[in-house]
Amino acid sequence: MPKITALKVQVKNKNRVNVYLDGEFAFGLVMIEAAKLRLGQMLSDGDIDRIKKTDEGESAFEKAVKFISYRPRSEKEVRQNLKKKEIEAGLIDEAVERLKRVGLLNDEQFAQMWVESRSHSKPKGRRVLKIELRQKGLSREAVDAAVAGTNDEEVARRLAASRAPRLKKLPKIEFRRKLGSYLARRGINYEIISEVVEHAWQEFGEGNDTLENED
Predict the structure, then answer these.
(1) Beta pairing partners, 24
(2) Which of 21, 63, 123, 131 is least surrounded, with the fewest CB atoms within 10 Å of its CB?
């Protein structure tokens, strides 16, 4: 059986260690697994296969952790990212389940955070929020629970208040058309749009409304 003759931290990745068997480089290994080895240890072919398989799993997990460190992700996003890195399906399953066990991956929490984030930065109505969340692979139940507290009328008024001042010098017909289209693209239904646009015109409109009869 080959013997471990050296364990050297990689120059370009301090989290990995190069393992040398009988004086020759054999394979790379994540630090946490390399810490279980010792100089002079004898490794059978079975030992080497097991160590390499474990390393692949740890590597997949580390890639997943790095991916979600930038911002919260859904399970579908994590799976897609690992698949792009050509990680085999079984290891992806293991990494995802491990993330769930340690509380780093939770689609229900992700959905809630997504809706809250949208509310603060880019408010949108329920219809668009549902589409966005479904595209990220969330279940219907998780989506419905996340958007349950969304008030489309309140969202529409916030959007109108931020947009209408830019349109205030337009004739009423143009004001209504542009503001209405803007709200519709953000998932607000027609009934709410009609009321909110009219209210916005009364509050912000300065344009000529003589074209109203042509509407």
Answers:
(1) 21
(2) 131
pLDDT digits 0-9 by tens, 55-90: 999 999 999 999 999 999 999 999 999 999 999 999
Q: Contacts by 164-171 with C-beta closer than 8 Å and gap 24+?
A: 164/200, 164/201, 164/203, 164/204, 164/205, 165/204, 167/204, 168/204, 168/205, 168/206, 168/207, 169/206, 169/207, 170/207, 171/207, 171/208, 171/209, 171/210, 171/211
Is 160 in the same domain as 210? yes
pLDDT of 177 over the 60 cut: yes
- Residues in a beta bridge with 4: 21
Residue 6 DSSP one-character state: E
* Per-residue pLDDT at 132 exceeds 60: yes
Whether 4 is covered by a domain: the verdict is yes
User: How sure is the predictor about 210, in pLDDT bands with cuts at 50, 70 and 90?
Assistant: low
Q: pLDDT at position 204, please? A: 87
Question: 160-192 as b/e, with b when 16 or more CB fall inside 10 Å?
Answer: beebbeebeebbbbebbebbbebbeebbbeeeb
| Residue 74: domain span | 55-103
Rounded Cα distance between 77 and 135, Å, is 10
